[in-house]
Amino acid sequence: MTTLAPEALRFCVAPMMDWTDRHCRAFHRILSRRARLYTEMVTTAAVLHGDRERLLGHDACEHPLAVQLGGSVPADLARVACICADRGYAEINLNVGCPSDRVQNGSFGACLMREPKLVGDCVAAMVAATPVPVTVKCRLGVDEQGLEALDALADAAVAGGTSRFENRDVPPLDYPAVHALKRRLPAVPIVLNGGLGSWPAVDEALCHLDGVMLGRAAYGEPALLLDVDARLFGEAGTPATRAEAVTAYLPYGEGRLAAGVPLHAMTRHMLGLFNGLPGARGWRRHLATEGVKRGAGVAVIEQALRFPLDGERLAA
Ligand SMILES: Cc1cc2nc3c(=O)[nH]c(=O)nc-3n(C[C@H](O)[C@H](O)[C@H](O)COP(=O)(O)O)c2cc1C
């Protein structure tokens, strides 16, 4: 079993279907070199029978990158874990938390909360099949389940050899329950997810736990990621301003346009970048109206940059 260095998980951007696609991740990677990024969930059936390049393809710039898998058949998960390891993923994460109907019908995701033994078997099968660290993302429980469900699941995942446990803490938010889990299993890296959206909340969580995972806040207000490397890793090197980050994304954008990706597939992830600053609305509107036009190129992004005033220009 390979373990993850605790540093690897201090700050994670949550897996989010339809949101954290490869273009989103390439953008987030410019904002933070150190944040751990996750794919959208991909099911084992899709990987085994579908278009692997579409499902698992990514750009080298996105690393360190984790793939999130949905599935509940240990042998299938083991095969898919190998496929993902060959494609260079740094971590394989099992989804034991997603409550969507789409997922529950497939008898995985949140309903695995009811089957800790099966989760342990799934983890063990993946750990045996690949040297890449295997982690689990779960919830506090489903429906009427009490917190014992979390304990049982964590124990089974650890027995299976998981390298890390991410707890999706909604609903309801019960951070102390996650702190208690950490006290009970001090050697297991535990990451808190759910409802985190500000630096004070992140700092507080990091007093108790190994890492934080932000979903909606990181996506909706991506400028938050610009502070991650300096605040949590003591590292410089991320763009000084939001506009600089956008400019750094342009070569990636040009490359993908040349490969036939429409501009909008990339710019849709950048709409919230200037939220809270003067001109944010102009930025959003320009991208939303011009970025969707046939043949739109990166010039649209450069033009949209005329609207917002970011920190440096405000100070000038
Ligand atoms: C649009 C959307 C898609 C999501 N897709 C997934 C997914 O594929 N896998 C998963 O484990 N969780 C998924 N989630 C849940 C998030 O990963 C996260 O656990 C949840 O949003 C709570 O964190 P937050 O309060 O920081 O947003 C999704 C959430 C959203 C909003």
Question: Mean of the pLDDT scores?
Answer: 90
Number of helices: 16
How far from one another are the termini? 52 Å
Radius of gyration: 20 Å
Q: How would you write the strand order of the largest sheet? A: 1-2-3-4-5-6-7-8
CATH homologous superfamily annotation of the largest domain:
Aldolase class I
CATH topology of the largest domain: TIM Barrel
Q: From N to C, what is the helix and strand string?
A: EHEHHEHEHHEHEHEHEHHHHHHH
The percent range for strand residues is 5-15%
Number of DSSP-assigned strands: 8
Low-confidence runs (pLDDT<50, min 5 residues)?
A: none
Percentage of residues in helical conformation: 40-55%
Question: Which sheet architecture does the biggest sheet show?
Answer: 8 strands, parallel, barrel
CATH architecture of the largest domain: Alpha-Beta Barrel
Total individual domains: 2
| Helix/sheet category | alpha/beta
Description:
The chain is an alpha/beta fold and 316 residues long. It has two domains: 6-233, TIM Barrel (Alpha-Beta Barrel); 242-315, Four Helix Bundle (Hemerythrin (Met), subunit A) (Up-down Bundle), CATH 1.20.120.1460. The protein contains 16 helices and eight strands. The protein has helices at 22-31, 44-49, 52-56, 74-86, 101-105, 116-129, 148-160, 175-184, 199-208, 216-220, 228-233, 242-258, 263-267, 280-290, 299-304, 311-315, and strands at 11-13, 36-43, 65-70, 91-96, 134-139, 164-168, 190-193, 211-214. Helix 1 (22-31) runs antiparallel to helix 12 and helix 4 (74-86) packs parallel to helix 6 (116-129). The mean pLDDT is 90. The structure holds flavin mononucleotide (FMN). Flavin mononucleotide is lined by residues 14-19, 40-41, 68, 95, 97-98, 137, 168, 170, 193-196, 214-217.
